[in-house]
Write a structure and sequence with these properties.
This is Sec-independent protein translocase protein TatC. Belongs to the TatC family. Keywords: Cell membrane, Membrane, Protein transport, Translocation, Transmembrane, Transmembrane helix, Transport. It holds the Pfam family TatC. There is one protein chain. This protein is mainly α. It is built from eleven helices and no strands. Helix 5 packs antiparallel against helix 6 and helix 6 crosses helix 7. It is flat.
């Protein structure tokens, strides 16, 4: 296949990806009001059912609808997008690597969504409570501008989703020979210390709870990665 053919196939796959995201955006825009009501639940849980937002910028609500629709559409269509991309790469790899590639796509997607779920169910509301209630001095209005709330919402959730890609990174480094399971296990104390520092930096609040919510699952994923790498190394030797 010539370079022109490769570029043409890449163009077609990009078009397919855009169509997939656009299809989901139609649905998320149609249910935009319901999605907004759902996403602000942590805010109202902290400040009460009568809590409201401020509109600072004229187009903020409209832009938030578009941004929310786009991000949610990408997240929901993530496995489809990765599969489309893998279809472009797969012909250049051997059958065994192709099989593992499909597994990595599924594993990566599940890990990312697990990070989002952890942030939603245990971290984000606690983060809001710390800064809007616990650390708020008297005489200060706790209510947020609507665009600031959504920026915080997506930034924190994406941090957790991206952090949960740790096993994918470690396993891929192991498959190319840069790391080994023996090295990871022998350096587990240093690894946990590094994870603790990263968790302290990335955790949304100054409290220990927020840090532990990132430290504990990332430490578990580190040891899980070492076990998976050990299994793969044993399989390769057979």
């Amino acid at each position: 296949m010539s370079l022109g053919d490769h570029l043409e196939e890449l163009r077609q796959r990009l078009i397919y990806s855009i169509l997939v995201v656009s299809a989901f955006m139609v649905g998320t825009l149609y249910f935009g009001s319901e999605i907004h009501t759902f996403l602000i639940q942590p805010y109202k849980s902290v400040l009460g059912p009568d809590a409201h937002f401020f509109q600072i910028q004229l187009m903020a609500p409209f832009l938030i609808y578009l941004k929310t629709s786009f991000i949610l559409s990408v997240l929901v269509s993530l496995p489809f997008l990765l599969y489309i991309l893998w279809g472009f790469i797969a012909p250049a790899v051997d059958p065994r690597t192709e099989k593992w590639g499909k597994f990595i796509i599924l594993f990566s997607t599940l890990l990312f969504w697990s990070g989002l779920a952890l942030c939603w169910f245990t971290v984000f509301e606690n983060f809001l409570r710390v800064f809007l209630v616990v650390l708020r001095p008297d005489g200060v209005d706790p209510y947020l501008p609507i665009d600031e709330y959504y920026d915080l919402f997506f930034n924190l959730h994406l941090v957790f989703g991206a952090s949960f890609q740790l096993p994918i990174v470690l396993i891929l480094l192991g498959r190319i020979g840069f790391l080994s399971s023996r090295f990871l296990i022998s350096r587990w104390r240093e690894a946990v210390l590094i994870i603790a520092v990263v968790s302290a930096v990335l955790s949304p609040g100054p409290d220990v709870f927020s840090m532990l919510m990132l430290l504990v699952p990332l430490s578990f994923l580190f040891f899980l990665s070492a076990i998976i790498m050990k299994v793969l190394e044993t399989t390769d030797r057979k």
